[in-house]
Design goal:
The chain is mainly alpha-helical and about 260 residues long. It has one domain. The protein has eleven helices and three strands; from the N terminus they run H-H-E-E-E-H-H-H-H-H-H-H-H-H. It has a three-stranded antiparallel beta sheet with strand order 1-2-3. The protein starts with a helix and ends with a helix.
Length: about 260
């Protein structure tokens, strides 16, 4: 297990040697990224901010489709919605009373979720998500800012320069920053042991490692998109057949193409 001291040492190294890599995104950049992700996720339909995909064990909420598990239910994917609620409250948002104690998702399954889709509680939840698009985007951007030292801490020493240079090439341009922010929230950093099929992950770290060469400029974004496509196709091949993950691959690829324009 990587020690906290190792993570902090790597973070200090990155801050000293590559200050542009971990620079906090400007408010304007966060707004642009947040609303682009929101449009990608909802297609302009606010109701999609409260969703539950077929075949999944959790609700998907907000512009990042943040995961929210019902009581007693857990899967391989990391829960994020309670952390989003805490982030909103820390930034001055008044939460509905029923959310203040960070309860588990009150709907036990997809059927009950959609049976209640126009209830006062669900309408209150959607209103909260519609009114906090910027802060959800800032939550996602802050997650990216902390991702690099964590990823480098578990990367073999020989691969660290490649991961760092590719991250830097992407973060040096608007499309690359959008791709990084979106992907790390879409599929995670790639560090969680349960988020593996046949011991192979599909997070941001895996995509950076699988990129080919050391592209710069727009070609770096194009190769990132291609690499993500390869990593996600591998995930589908390795996934348990009963999950039928191939049904999602076309939508994932469509999302990756938004990184190019």
């Amino acid at each position: 297990m990587t020690s906290l001291l190792t993570v902090l040492a790597l973070a200090a190294f990155i801050r000293a040697e590559e200050p542009a890599v971990t620079a906090r995104l400007s408010d304007d950049m966060v707004v642009a990224i947040a609303y682009r992700i929101c449009d990608n996720e909802t297609g302009g339909v606010p109701g999609v901010l409260t969703h539950w995909n077929r075949g999944e064990e959790f609700a998907s909420l907000g512009i990042g489709h943040f995961i929210w598990y019902p009581e007693g239910r857990r899967g391989p994917f990391q829960e994020s919605f309670p952390r989003v609620l805490s982030y909103l409250e820390e930034h001055g948002v008044k939460l509905p009373a029923w959310l203040k104690l960070r309860p588990p998702c009150p709907w036990p399954d997809r059927r009950s979720f959609f049976a209640d889709i126009d209830s006062p509680r669900m309408l209150e939840l959607r209103a909260l998500l519609q009114s906090t698009v910027y802060l959800q985007g800032r939550f996602m951007a802050d997650r990216l800012q902390t991702a690099l030292p964590k990823m480098l801490a578990v990367t073999p020493r020989t691969l660290r320069p490649k991961v760092l240079s590719r991250f830097k090439a992407l973060s040096a341009q608007k499309q690359g920053l959008y791709a990084l922010v979106d992907y790390v929230n879409f599929k995670g950093e790639g560090l969680s042991p349960p988020e593996r099929y046949k011991h192979r992950g599909w997070g941001l770290l895996q995509v950076l490692v699988q990129m080919r060469g050391d592209p710069e400029g727009p070609e770096a974004v194009a190769e990132f998109s291609r690499s993500a496509g390869r990593v996600l196709a591998r995930r589908v091949r390795n996934s348990p057949p009963e999950r039928r993950e191939s049904r999602w691959l076309a939508g994932w690829r469509k999302r990756l193409r938004t990184y190019l324009s």
